[in-house]
Design goal:
49% of the residues lie in helices and 15% in strands. It is of the alpha+beta class. The protein has three domains: 150 residues, Beta-Lactamase (2-Layer Sandwich), CATH 3.30.450; 87 residues, Signal transduction histidine kinase, dimerisation/phosphotransfer (DHp) domain (Helix Hairpins), CATH 1.10.287; 149 residues, Heat Shock Protein 90 (2-Layer Sandwich).
C-alpha cells in the first residue's frame, strides 16, 4: 500500500471512529434525557391515579379514556391503565388495551419504569401500589411514539452528517496528502535518477513545508558531495594510472634494452641498477597511493599517547640524508607536548612536511620546526628559506598529484604530488588541520592537533623513544 493510501485511509478511519463515537454518545444521552422526562411524568401520574383508585374503593379506574397531557413538551399521549388484584387477576383496564394486559409476573418492580409492547406498540410503563388496598396494583403506560420518532429522525440526520463528514475528510485528506506526497515523490524520483547514474538530478521544490524543503536541501547537498567524490575518484584513478605508467614504461624499456643483444657483466649490472632505481620509484609511488587511499578512507589504527619530540626526531632522521645532500639544516624547538594519535601516521605527516621544505630550500638554508601548545591545541610549524609558494598555487598545493616548482629554481626531484595531500588527510583524521600560513620568505605550514594531557608515553614502532629532540636542537 502506498504512503498516500495509508495516510488517507488512516485519516478517514480516525474520523469515522471519532464521529461515530461522538454521534452515538450524543444520541444515547438525548434518548436517556427524554426517557427520564417521560419516566418522571409517568410516576407522577401513576401515583395520582392510584390515589383516585383508592378513593373509589379499589374496584374501578379513574383514568380518563381521553388522551392525557402529562408528558414532556406538552405532547398528548394515550394512556394505558390496568388494575391488578392481589391474586394477579385484572380487575379493570382502559379501552386502549386492544388485548389483555400482561400478567403481573411480567411487570417490573414497583415504581420502576420499564418498556413493554402491546400489539406492536412500544410503551413506557410503571406499576405502583394502590394506597390502603394491600396487594392491589396499578399499571400505567404511555406510548414512546414521540421519543422513538425523535430517535429515528436524529439517527437519519446523524447518518447523513456522518457520511458527508467522512466523505469531506477523505477528499481533504486526499488533496492534502497529494500535496505532501508530491514533494516526497519528487525527492524519490531524484534518488532513482541518481541511482541510475544521473548526478545532475536535483530536487527542486516550488513549495512545501519547512521539513520537506530541508530534506530536499540535504538530498541535493548529498548528491553534490557524491558528484564531487566521484570526480575526485575518477581524477585519482586517472592520475594514478598515469603516474604508474611512467615508471613501468621506464622499467620495461630498460629491461627490453638490456635483453636486445648480448652484453657483458658490467652492462647487465648497470641495466639492473637502472631497473632497480625505477622499481624503487614504482614502490614509493605504490606506497604513497596506498597511504593516501587509507587516509582518505579514514582507516586509522588505534590511537596512543605520542611524543611529538620523538616524532619530529625520527622524521628528521629519515630526511637527514637528503638534507645533507642539499646542504640544508633542520632545527627544532619544542615544549615537550604530546598528542593522542597514531605514531606512524604522524611521523609520515611530519616527514612529508620536512621533505617538502628541504626540497624547496636553497643550499645553506634552514628548515625550522617549532612545536608549542596554544590553548587546547598542539601547534607544529614547519617553515623554510625557499622561494615560497606562488599565489596561483596556494589553493592547489593540497590537491592529489599537484606538483609545484619554486619561483627561483627548478625542482630537482619530482615526486607523485601526494605528500601534502597525505599530510592534510592524516591531520584531519586526527581531528586537526594543516594549512599554509602567511609570513616569512619561504613556505610556512601550520599543523594543529588536539593537545593531550601529559601521561605515560606508550612506545611505538616507527618512533622510538630513544630519539627525543631537545628544545632548540639541530636535527640534521
Amino acid at each position: 500500500m502506498s504512503l498516500r493510501a495509508r495516510i488517507v485511509g488512516t485519516t478517514t478511519a480516525v474520523t469515522l471512529v471519532t464521529l461515530g463515537g461522538a454521534f452515538a454518545a450524543i444520541s444515547f444521552a438525548m434518548d436517556e434525557s427524554h426517557v427520564e422526562q417521560l419516566d418522571g411524568a409517568l410516576l407522577a401520574e401513576a401515583f395520582q391515579e392510584a390515589g383516585e383508585v383508592a378513593e373509589l374503593g379499589g374496584t374501578a379506574l379513574a383514568i380518563s379514556e381521553q388522551p392525557g397531557r402529562f408528558t414532556r413538551d406538552d405532547v398528548t399521549f394515550t394512556k394505558y391503565g390496568a388494575l391488578y388484584a392481589a391474586d394477579g387477576q385484572v380487575v379493570a383496564r382502559t379501552s386502549s388495551f386492544k388485548q389483555a394486559p400482561p400478567p403481573v409476573g411480567e411487570l417490573s418492580e414497583t415504581a420502576t419504569p420499564f418498556d413493554m409492547y402491546i400489539a406492536d406498540e412500544h410503551l413506557r410503563a410503571v406499576q405502583v401500589d394502590v394506597p390502603r388496598h394491600p396487594g392491589l396494583k396499578l399499571l400505567l403506560a404511555s406510548p414512546r411514539t414521540s421519543i422513538d420518532g425523535d430517535t429515528r429522525f436524529r439517527l437519519k440526520a446523524m447518518l447523513v452528517v456522518f457520511l458527508a463528514a467522512v466523505g469531506w475528510v477523505a477528499m481533504v485528506a486526499t488533496w492534502t496528502t497529494r500535496r505532501l506526497v508530491r514533494d516526497h515523490e519528487i525527492i524519490a524520483d531524484v534518488t532513482k535518477r541518481v541511482a541510475r547514474g544521473d548526478l545532475s538530478a536535483r530536487a527542486e521544490l516550488v513549495s512545501g513545508d519547512a521539513e520537506t524543503r530541508l530534506l530536499a536541501k540535504n538530498v541535493n547537498e548529498m548528491i553534490e558531495r557524491l558528484d564531487a567524490l566521484l570526480r575526485v575518484q575518477r581524477q585519482f584513478v586517472a592520475h594514478a594510472a598515469h603516474e604508474l605508467r611512467s615508471p613501468l614504461t621506464t622499467l620495461y624499456g630498460e629491461l627490453s634494452h638490456a635483453l636486445r643483444k648480448p652484453r657483458d657483466a658490467s652492462e647487465y649490472r648497470r641495466a639492473i641498477e637502472e631497473a632497480l632505481a625505477s622499481t624503487e620509484d614504482l614502490k614509493a609511488l605504490a606506497d604513497d597511493l596506498l597511504v593516501y587511499a587509507r587516509v582518505v578512507a579514514n582507516r586509522l589504527p588505534p590511537a596512543e599517547d605520542v611524543s611529538i619530540d620523538a616524532i619530529v626526531a625520527h622524521a628528521a632522521k629519515l630526511v637527514a640524508k637528503e638534507a645533507r645532500s642539499r646542504d640544508v639544516r633542520i632545527a627544532s624547538s619544542s615544549d615537550g607536548s604530546s598528542v593522542l594519535g597514531h605514531a606512524r601516521d604522524l611521523e609520515r605527516l611530519v616527514r612529508n612536511l620536512l621533505e617538502n621544505a628541504v626540497e624547496h630550500s636553497p643550499p645553506g638554508g634552514e628548515v625550522r620546526v617549532t612545536t608549542r601548545t596554544e590553548g587546547d591545541d598542539l601547534v607544529l610549524i614547519v617553515e623554510d628559506d625557499g622561494p615560497g609558494i606562488a599565489a596561483d598555487d596556494r589553493d592547489r598545493i593540497f590537491e592529489p598529484f599537484f606538483r609545484r616548482v619554486g619561483s627561483e629554481r627548478p625542482v630537482e626531484r619530482e615526486g607523485a604530488g601526494l605528500g601534502l595531500s597525505i599530510a592534510r588527510g592524516i591531520a584531519e583524521g586526527h581531528g586537526g588541520t594543516l594549512s599554509l600560513a602567511d609570513g616569512g620568505a619561504g613556505a610556512r605550514f601550520v599543523l594543529k592537533l588536539p593537545a593531550h594531557s601529559p601521561g605515560t608515553r606508550v612506545p611505538s614502532s616507527g618512533s622510538p623513544d630513544e630519539m627525543p629532540a631537545a628544545s632548540g636542537s639541530k636535527l640534521a
